[in-house]
Amino acid sequence: MSVFSRILIVRTGALGDLILTSGVIERIRKGNPDAHITIAGNVEFLPLVQNYVDSIISFESPMLRPYFLRDECKPGKEDSANLGAPEDRLPFDLAYVWLKDINDPFIQNLRRSGIKVFAAPSFQTNGEIHQAAFLSKILDQDPAMHNLSGSTADRVTGRLTLRLPNASEILESRGPGTHRIAIHSGAGSMRKRWPLERFQALARLLQQNRNADVYWIVGPAEFEHGSASAADLPVGHVVRSDIVPLAYFLRTIDLFVGNDSGVTHLARALGIETIALFGPTDPTIWAPQGARVLHCAGPDGRPDASVQDVLDLASGLLSMKVHDTHR
Length: 327
Known about the structure:
327 residues; alpha/beta; Rossmann fold; 6-stranded parallel beta sheet; 5-stranded parallel beta sheet
């Protein structure tokens, strides 16, 4: 068992990056049940892992700012001159840090201040294994984590354990359809997006053929680059204004369909049956674990699966869900 009492986890990046790290964060908590754990990163998304940590701070927090300075790492500098008096230093004795460069001044400064640091790159140079497994390799540096029971798969397959307050109020808004299906047509880049008109055609067919209530998850990114407009989407779409309410909403969904995006990772991490449409990126590295993946890239690299292929897969999954419900 770990002897460290105050632990800092640094995980920057977007929503998908945090989800892919969630299994490791959960593992750190299991290995340090009595420690006070703080996570630093993008505060918009960090509440998703609040069950595994004790406090949340921004990576741009004033308390971390002195540790970004490159001059702090020059040999011969006195620690007291660079990082303040001992009583003003960061209150951590152990840190797990993922950054693009493991020689980043921030990491070096943490070590100079006396914090034990396990650092790892946030991305693979040559993609060979699933990204979640790659991120979990940071645990190999910590001997205290080697004694935990469980396989490698156990420690990297994150499943978010969010509580669902007011679930009855959310479910009261359920429409007359047999199934609730969420569609997210956005992604971090246009090259990752299945054409919007195919999503629309899929939605119509699911409504007609499966008596489905279809909900569109949209936010600021979906209205950029002309990828969507209010007129493009049906009445009743869900506007993503805050990540936690979105997560609560997704917990009420029977099936999720989306691109290679953070929201797709979120849906699967919440245990929702998920169809992920991939084009330019390799799903063996980036796909949400356990998702049903359709990988078909068109001439421009964008996802190019046919509407019929997605409909067939969705119909099969919904039929299985109905069968399981009545067993």
